[in-house]
């Protein structure tokens, strides 16, 4: 989890941008939720290398020097993320690292870098087979390892050459799609034919949340501890989607266990967006110790298409730590839908063992689970300091997600909504472009764990 400059600033950021947002990561409690990497996404250096081939710091943008900034981040218990491309140039036409892997890895390690995002622009045609991509990205893996510094390695090859099939052997995460920027708008830059497996002709750009979810439904199961499939940075807070759409985007990215990298202006957040990004019950899905991604169970077309002709409902389900389950109803149509879904469809097959149990359902977006608008407003304007008792807030630096879940912390479970009996049906109204998301827990589990009943 972290924060990245690109979605909100493009290449136009400097040390003030970094400092302002880093301060907000701390004061708004994001760091203590786990958003702790600050990624300088492209445009960190001069346009040319030095005579000996070294990268050169951009002094105009970073007059204090990158080393000093890295130290400042570390002093705040944040991590320093850098960026380059496995190509001749980066996507912003700064020097890329192809052929300079060892020299650049050393340079970043000396600056105290903790994370590398490694892009795919200007790759000199060294793509098109898994061998070509693997060798190109593997060279940087070797170079990072040779530095002896612990640097998280994040591939950004947009899913080229089916990176989810080989990325886990050399990296910690891999982007599986082109850049995202809307909820549902189809784009020629990111084509998707219904009959095409994985929905991808070329990685593309301007991919919608729904397009990315469609692709992720085929490959999310490749994610696991040590290697996460990255659905792209979050757009929450950038203004291009409705609150319901941001809620859906954030829920799905969390439950699929994508890295949660914000890409917004942290000193310009609305209370609604702040409450989404800090929802402890949803982040608990992302940080679940079980480490399994949610799976799409079915998609059903409905009549109420939106202006792009998109109109469907989707049901997703996944396994959580210690037998809990996550269930999501997603309404991608433009009118509220009433859904009645039998448990066997939620769990995949008729007679499925899990559908023959009774489940308590905890709503992950109930009022009070997220920060109420009033509380969020006060924290944002500095009149309320976050503390252990702040409504809707969870500090995972104090009590880890694992400890919190083991202790049945109600902030992580969500709000009890009711019970669905064995073999029963879950019914819910879901607003347009919104989700209903629950943690399912076997009936009796909480009660059995109470000391006086043991
Ligand atoms: C590509 C990546 C983005 C970002 C930019 C930087 O488009 O996909 O995430 O890193 O390059 O220029």
From TrEMBL:
One of its GO terms (molecular function) is alpha-galactosidase activity. Its EC number is 3.2.1.22. InterPro entries: Aldolase_TIM (IPR013785), GH (IPR017853), Glyco_hydro_27 (IPR002241), Glyco_hydro_b (IPR013780), Glyco_hydro_melibiase (IPR006215), Melibiase_C (IPR041233). Residues 311-369 form the Alpha galactosidase C-terminal domain. Keywords: Disulfide bond, Glycoprotein, Glycosidase, Hydrolase, Secreted, Signal. GO terms for biological process: melibiose catabolic process. Its main location: secreted. It is an enzyme of class 3 (hydrolase). GO terms for cellular component: extracellular region. It is found in: Secreted. Pfam families: Melibiase_2, Melibiase_C. The keyword Zinc does not apply. Signal peptide: none annotated. It comes from the Eukaryota. SUPFAM superfamilies: (Trans)glycosidases (SSF51445), Glycosyl hydrolase domain (SSF51011). It catalyses: Hydrolysis of terminal, non-reducing alpha-D-galactose residues in alpha-D-galactosides, including galactose oligosaccharides, galactomannans and galactolipids. PANTHER family: ALPHA-GALACTOSIDASE MEL1 (PTHR11452:SF75), ALPHA-GALACTOSIDASE/ALPHA-N-ACETYLGALACTOSAMINIDASE (PTHR11452). Belongs to the glycosyl hydrolase 27 family. This is Alpha-galactosidase. It comes from Cyphellophora europaea (strain CBS 101466).
